[in-house]
Amino acid sequence: MMDTVKLNNGVEMPVLGYGVYQVTPEECERCVADALSIGYRSIDTAQAYANEEGVGNAVKKSGIARKEVFITTKVWISNAGYERAKASIDESLRKLQSDYVDLLLIHQPFNDYYGTYRAMEEAYKAGKARAIGLSNFYPDRFVDLAECCEIKPMVNQVETHVFNQQTEPQKIMERYGTRIMSWGPFAEGRNDFFANATLQAIGKKYGKSVAQTALRFLIQRGVIVIPKSTRKERMIENFEVFDFALTDEDMQEITGLDRKKSLFLSHDDPEIVKWLIGLVK
After folding, report:
1. What residues does the record give for site: Lowers pKa of active site Tyr (predicted)?
2. Tally of domains in the chain
């Protein structure tokens, strides 16, 4: 049975989903169909991934009722600002072949994200989004927006894995009733992730892999996870994390792996900001 977390507006969201970042538009439909057949009921996409159509097709063809599948998408930087964001939300719904999205996020904290958020609040009130939130908002920008908006963000999706555990940002989000969601739960294999001795030793006790142990650690901390794989056997492995629990001692040991910094890119580095803004212009 899939565990869920309750968002601050009462909407139940699966704690484990399937992410389609870097899944090609050609492969996306097949991958999402596989994920749904395994039992995943939460799919995370974005305008910038150029694969919303694949998600929409797979959900449509699956025969699973739309209300049974939790779909997340994100508004990209180039669609920022009230008018553009508003038009892009409708475009995303068209591609997803749905009247609504379950969770709508601002993908990056750049350009006119206040205007974007106003368009999202409006979409929420109109029933086009069941929940709204943010992605990649560091504590300073997160607090700024959370203090100055009408509808508190329900989710903030940030880089979260055993080497960057986001414990302090998570506490700050919780003050606003905002749930933390992880992207890159396996750190994309960086820092020799899959050969980590601590995760191997702990996983071995339960007959679980490094990946399963890492996901379990995040889930027990109340972190929503969306591991991505294009291989069905990996999707199955990532799904099998609800039949064991880590002890307090295990959790403590994994907490010791935290380096408290990004293994990818820093959103407060001016050069990175410039690069991100120029990505999909």
Report:
1. 74
2. 1
CATH of the domain at 137: 3.20.20.100
Secondary structure class of 125 (helix, strand, coil): helix
Ligand-binding annotation for 161, yes or no, is no
- Any idea what DSSP says for residue 83? H
DSSP 232: H
d(CA 255, CA 163): 9
Contact indicator for 212, 238 with CB cutoff of 8 Å: yes
Which residues have a Cβ under 8 Å from the Cβ of 228 and sit 6 or more positions away? 18, 19, 20, 21, 22, 23
pLDDT digits (tens, 9 = 90+) for 242-264: 999 999 999 999 999 999 999 99
Residue 277 has φ and ψ, to the nearest 5°, of: -65, -35
The pTM score is 0.97
Residues annotated as catalytic (active site), given as ranges: 49
- Domain boundaries, position 249: 4-279
